[in-house]
Amino acid sequence: MESSKTKTEVSTEEKRIFQENDFRIEQMKEEYFEELMTLYTEFFAPREPLGCGLHLKKEEIAKFLSQSAKEWIKCRTSVCAIYVPENKIVGAIFTKILNRNDQETFNEEDISQFTPGVQTLIKILCKIESSYNVFEQDNAVNKILEVAATTVDPSFSGNKLVYRMTEECERIARELGCQVATTQSTNKITQHIRKKMGFESRLRIEYQDIEVDGVKPLDISAMNGTTGANIFVKYL
């Protein structure tokens, strides 16, 4: 799950020029939870293509994310970008480390607490994730870095924060023995970034083909030009 900005969101403030040392990339801390959830509620939830295609309210997506975020924050490979002059979190990547005993980031075990729209979102995420299993494709792989959700405050976009955060995730993952990084990239902008960073697309899933409970639930016209998800893999 990933978000990006549209051209209409670009403002004079977004075009400010920053220096590389204006930002610090660091591991997430549990005490950052509230600030991180504010970031994802304001800048991820309204722009994530699947949420847009299902016409979900940002509060619906935020509630769903908050359930997993508490676990993702504890993962040592989850990182955030801090704007140093204001000591403000302006970007983040939630991650999970998968192994052969725990191969999923998303599941449908207990989704009754969510709205029908969010239940559909979870089912779609499960379909996308289960469509390509690295453990089944490569018997030598035992530990995987899963990039679960990425976002950046659009006021600070254009400063390669996704690149820097991803590189830090990968560095830590290698230290922890991860052999592969993978992500289900749902946004066309981030798909471009992943390719530039050496991720290989192993599978493309067109949104117009996704069915849930016998219907095709996604309004493609509301998805800001993103027409499909890519499953990416990168050997570390």
UniProtKB/TrEMBL annotation:
Leader sequence segment: none
Pathway: Aromatic compound metabolism; melatonin biosynthesis; melatonin from serotonin: step 1/2
EC number: 2.3.1.87
Name of the featured protein: aralkylamine N-acetyltransferase
Organism: Armadillidium nasatum
Record InterPro entries: Acyl_CoA_acyltransferase, GNAT_dom
Domain of life assignment: Eukaryota
Gene3D superfamilies linked to this entry: 3.40.630.30
Keyword Acyltransferase annotated: yes
Sequence similarity: Belongs to the acetyltransferase family. AANAT subfamily.
Catalyzed reactions per annotation: dopamine + hexadecanoyl-CoA = N-hexadecanoyl-dopamine + CoA + H(+); serotonin + (9Z)-octadecenoyl-CoA = N-(9Z-octadecenoyl)-serotonin + CoA + H(+); serotonin + acetyl-CoA = N-acetylserotonin + CoA + H(+); serotonin + octadecanoyl-CoA = N-octadecanoyl-serotonin + CoA + H(+)
Keywords, sorted A to Z: Acyltransferase, Transferase
EC class: transferase
N-acetyltransferase domain residues: 23-219
UniProt KW Acyltransferase keyword: yes
Recorded GO MF terms: aralkylamine N-acetyltransferase activity
